[in-house]
Amino acid sequence: MAEKIREDIDAIVNLSGGLECAAALWYAVAKGYNPVALHLYNKEGWGNVADAQLAAAQEQADYMGVRLLVDEANMPQQNRKNNYPVLQHLSAISTLMVGNPFVRFKAIIWGANSDDSFRQRLQLKFPFRAIACGWSQTLDPHGIKPHHIIKLPTNVFPFEWMQKSELVAMLLKAEPKLLEMVWSCTGELDLMSNGKYLPCGKCDKCIELTYSKKVAWKSVHKVQEGSFKE
Fold it and tell me: Do the bridges between strand 154-156 and strand 35-41 make them parallel or antiparallel, or are there none, so unpaired?
C-alpha cells in the first residue's frame, strides 16, 4: 500500500520536469504552501522521454524537499500526436482529492506561461464540476451544496503573465540550481555513457528553451525614469 498523504499537505504542484513546472514548485514553497508534487509517467506515449522527465522531476522535488507522487499511464498509444498530459493530470488530481477527504487542498499550482495558460484553463472547467457533483451526490450542478464549492481548491497560475524567457530570468535569480535540473526535450533520446539522458537539441522544445535562455541572458534590466533604489 502506498504511503498516506500527510494531512498538513495543502497544495498540489504539477511537476513535469520542465521549466514552468519547476518554477511552479519554487513558487509553492516560497509562497509558504506545504505541497505535494504530481508527475505523470507515460512510457507508452513518450518512450525514453518519459524516463528523462521523471528523473528531472524527482531531482527537482528532492532539491526542494517535496514528496513526488507518480501517476503511471500504460494504455497502448501508437503515436504522441495530441497526447495532452493535462487530461491525465485531471484524473490523477481527482483521485487525490476524492480519495483523501481529510486532506484540505487549498490550491493546485500550474506552471503555465502566457502562451499556454488559456488552454489549461479550458481543460480544467469540467473536472471541478464532476468532483463537486460527486461530493454532493447530485447529477446536476444546480444541486451542488455550497460547502462543497468552498471545499474545492483554487487553480493558481502564478506565471501566466510571463513569457518563457522571463521565467528563465526569474528562476536564474531565485533558484539557479533548479534551473539546471530542467528537462525540456520531446525528441528521440539515447543514453549517455554516464547513464544520463542527453537532450536531442533539435526538437521544438529544445529549441524553445535554448532561445529563451539566450533572450534572458542577453536582456538588460530597464529602470523606469524617476525610480529609486530600494
Answer: unpaired
User: Looking at per-residue confidence, does 104 or 191 come out higher?
Assistant: 104
Most confident of 54-58, 120-124, 220-224: 54-58
Whether the CB-CB separation of 115 and 212 falls below 8 Å is answered with no
pTM for the structure as a whole = 0.89
Q: How many residues does the chain have?
A: 230
Kindly report the three-state secondary structure assignment for every residue of 150-183: HHCCEEECCCCCCCHHHHHHHHHHHCHHHHHCCC
Q: Are 186 and 207 in contact (CB under 8 A)?
A: no
Residues 6+ apart with CB under 8 A from 65: 29
Distance of alpha carbon 24 from alpha carbon 156, whole angstroms? 9
3-state DSSP assignment of residue 204: helix
Summarize pLDDT for 196-230 with one digit per residue, the tens: 788 888 999 999 999 999 999 888 666 666 655 55
In the block, cell 522527465 appears at 53
Identity of the residue numbered 203: C
- Paired with 108 in beta bridges are 12, 155
